[in-house]
Specification:
The complex is a heterodimer of chains A (541) and B (300).
Chain A lengths: L7 E5 L14 H17 L4 E8 L23 E10 L12 E6 L17 H12 L1 H19 L27 E7 L6 H15 L3 E6 L17 E4 L8 H12 L1 E7 L3 H4 L2 H7 L4 E6 L8 H8 L6 E4 L2 H10 L7 E3 L22 E6 L8 H15 L2 E6 L5 H10 L6 E4 L5 H6 L3 E4 L8 H8 L3 E5 L13 E2 L3 H17 L1 H18 L5 H12 L2
Parallel strand pairs in A: 2-4, 5-6, 5-8, 6-7, 8-9, 9-10, 10-11, 12-13, 12-15, 13-14, 15-16, 16-17
Antiparallel strand pairs in A: 1-3, 2-3
Helix pairs in contact in A: 2-3, 4-16, 10-11, 10-14, 13-15, 14-15
Chain B lengths: L4 E7 L3 H12 L7 E6 L6 H6 L7 E5 L5 H15 L4 E6 L2 E3 L3 H16 L6 E7 L11 E2 L5 H4 L4 E6 L5 E4 H7 L11 H8 L6 E11 L17 H18 L2 H17 L4 H16 L12
Parallel strand pairs in B: 1-2, 1-4, 2-3, 6-10
Antiparallel strand pairs in B: 4-9, 5-10, 6-9, 7-8, 8-10
Classes of the chains: A alpha/beta (541), B alpha/beta (300).
Amino acid sequence: MTRARQVFEIIDDGGSGLDGAEERLSPRELCLLAGALNYHSLVQPGREFRAVVLRGPNESFPRLTGDSCHRLEWPADRTVVCTVQVRSTLNGTAPDNAPLVPLVIDLGGEHPGGGTSYYSRAGLKAKVLRRARFGAPVAFDALRQGLTDYYEKRITSNRRPPRIARVESAAPLQGLAGEDRPPAIVFGLHWLEMGGAERWALESIALAKEAGFLPIVLTDRESSHPWIVRPELEGALVVPLDLPLPGTEEVDLLLALTREFSVRGIHVHHNGWLYHRLAWFKAMDPTIQVADSLHIIEWRTGGFVEVSIKLSNAIDVHHVISPQLRDYMVLQRDIPKERVALAPLYGLHEAAPVQQAKTENGRPFTVSFIGRLSQQKRPYLFLRYAHQLKRSAGNVRFIMHGDGALSDEATQLVSRYGLSDCVEFRRPPRAVDDTLTESDLLVISSDNEGLTLTTFEATAHDVAVLSTDVGSQASLVSSRALVPRQPLAFLKEAVSLTKEIMESEELREQIVQEQREKIESLKELPEARLWTKKLYEGWKA
Amino acid sequence: MTDKVAAVVVTYNRVDKLGKVLDSILAQTRSVDQLIVVDNASTDSTPQLLSVYDDDPRVEIVRLSTNTGGAGGFAAGMERAYERGADWVWIMDDDCYTTETALEKLLEGHAEAETELGRPVPYSCSLVRYTDGSICEMNNPGTTWDWGRLIAKGLNSVLITNCSFVSVLIPRRSIAKYGLPLVEYFIWFDDMEYTLRISAEGPGVQILDSVAVHDMPENRGVNFGDLNPGNAWKFYHGARNESSYRWHHDDKLAWVQFVVTTYAWMVRARVGRRLQLGVAKRILEGLKFDPKPKMARSVR
C-alpha cells in the first residue's frame, strides 16, 4: 500500500496491493502505479478507469503518462501483472453513464539509475565516441576539459539569450478562491533517484509538509524512480510524467492543479518542463510565488542555470547553494541581487566532530574517493592518479566508496593498472563514516561540483581534502589543496601534493585546519533548510 | 543588507606615511568593513607599525614573501577582498591620505552616476590633490570626449577613460567579469591597463567631491624625458607594459604613436644612447609579452 496522496478511489484493486491487501507489486511499483492513476484522475476528473498494469524487463523505464497509456497493445517483453479499476475523486463533467476509460500502465523494470547514457545509445557516432571514451578515458577527458575551458571562457558567460518578459498585469483567476482547497506547493524534480539535487528536493518537500502544505511532486525525466518510496513523499501527490503529454492533457493537468488545489508556490529543483510553464502559472495567478534551487553551472550546456536565467522574470527568487553561483547570477548575468538568495546546504548532513581512529602502527597512508562512480566524478582519473602515486610513493592504500554507471570501468582499470592489492571497493549501504575514519586524505577528482557535502564530512573526521578547483570548492577546501580540473595537470599536481602530505603530517593538519576555518566562515551565511522554512512560511499568507 | 566595502592598501618600505594613511581610512564617515594591508615584503619597520592594528578586527595584514610590485600587491589585496565577500574594493597607495568623507562621496557619486547613465559603472575614483591643495600632477585621469555629460545633469562627476590606483572604488562586478590587475606588469601602467580593461562596457567616473591627498616628494608628472640610470628599471617596466598593451589590446596605430612620443621625450631631454636602447629593447619585448589576467574565486 502506498502512503502517497491519491486523487482516486479504488473500485477493484485487482490484487495489485493498492488497497493494502495482497501485493503483487513491489512498494516502488505500487507508488508508480498510484502516480500514474493520479495523473489520469487529474486530466480526466470524475472518470472511471480500468488499467492493465504491465511489468517490463530490467533496465526498461516505466511509461505512466504518455501516448502508450492509451494504446491497447504492448511490446512482447512486457507481462501483465494485474488489472485495476479506480475512479477519479475530483469533480469532473463526466456524465453518470460515461464509459470506462481503458488505460495501459507500464511500470517498467528495475534500473540502476542515471537515465540513458549518451554512450549507450545506438548509432555510429555513439559507437565511435564509446570506443574513444572507454579506450583512452584520460586522453578523452583531456579533450572534454579543453572544450569545457572554451565554453567557460568564451561562450557560456557571454551568452545573452532573450529573457522572458515579466508578467505585469495579470489578475488571479476568478472563482478559485474556495478556502476548502488544500494549500499546495508544486515541486519540479528531474527524477526520483539518488543525487545531490534530489536529496535537497526531498528535504524541501518534507519542509513543505511541516509548514502545512500539500506537496505536488512532478518529475519530467524517464527513470524507474527508486526514491519514490522515500518517507518524505508520504502524503505528497506524486505525478511522474513521461513527456510529451498527449493531446490536450498538458492543459488539462495544469488546469486541474490550479482548480483542485490552492497553489501558493512553486519550487523548481531540476525540471525543465515545469520551468517552461512558470510564466503560465504566473499569468494565471500572479500571487503564486516561484522559487528555484540551483546547484552547479554546467559550462558546456548551460544546464538548469541557463534555463533559470532565461526564465528569471517568471521566478521570484533563485536559491543558490554556493557563492560561485551567486556571483555568476548577479555579477555575470545581471540578475538583480535581491532576487538571488545564497543559502548553502551545509546543514543537511551535519556531522559532529569525530574522534579520528588512532592510526595503527604501520597502517599505510590511506587515500579515499567517495561518491557516485559517474562521469562527473571521474573515477577513472582517480585510478590513474592512484596508479601514478603508487608507482612513485610506495606504501599507500586506496578506498573507492560508491557505486554507479562506471563501476565496471573502475573494476577493469584497477586490474589494468595493477592496483588490485591496494584498492578496496566499498559500496552503499556501507557507511561513509567507516571509510573516512580510516582515511588520511580524500581526493575529489570531479570535473564539476557545487559545494561537496563529503568535504564537510571529511573535515569532521579530520581528513584532509584535495580537490579539483571547480564550482565553489574554493569555499571549503584549502587553497593549497586545490588542483586544476584538466586531467594531465590534475595528475601532476595531485600526485606531487599527495607526496608532500604523506611526508608531512604538519602540512596535512594545516590543510584540515584551513578547511575548518572556511567551513566556519561559510556557516555565517543562512543555511538552506532554515532559509527554505522561512520562505514557505511566507507563502502561507 | 548593507554592502561590504574592503579598502586595500599596498605598502613597501613607507613606514613614515603608512600609519597616517591607515588612520585616515579607518576614520571615514562611512566606515570600511575591512582594511586589507598588503605588505610587499617591506624591509623597514613596517611589520612593527602594522602590529599596532592587531586589535582592530577590520584590519587584515597580507604579508607577501617577495616584493611583487604595485601590480602584484593590488592583485593580491583585491583577490583577498573578493574572496572575503567584499561588494566594493577601495584601493590606494601607501602615501595617499583620504579625507574623511572620501568613501561616502565615492559610494554616493557612483550610485548617482549609474542611475543617470542607466548602466553599471566599472569604477569611480577620487579627485587627488597634492599636499599643498593643488591638483596632483601624477594622478589626473584621462577623460572621455563627453566628460561633462554628468555635470550637465547636475552631478559633481566627470566621465573618465582611465586612472591611477589612488583612491579607486571598484565594484565586485568588475572584478568578477574582468579579473585582477596583471601581476606580471610589476609596476607602471598596471593601473592604466586595469581601468581600461574593466571599462569595456563604458567609462568610469571621477567623483569630484571625494578627495584624497597624495603625499609625493614633489608634485610633478613623469615622462620618458626623466629617464636616468637610477630610475631606468622603472621606466623599462613602463616601456614593456605600455608597448604590450598598445600592441595586443589597443590598435597598432596607438602603438606607433606611443613609440614616437616616447622617443620624442627622450630625444628632447637628451637621454643617453644606452638608456634609449634599453627602452627600445623593452618596447620590443612588449610585442611578445601578453600576460592574461587571473580571475578571482568566489569563496564566500
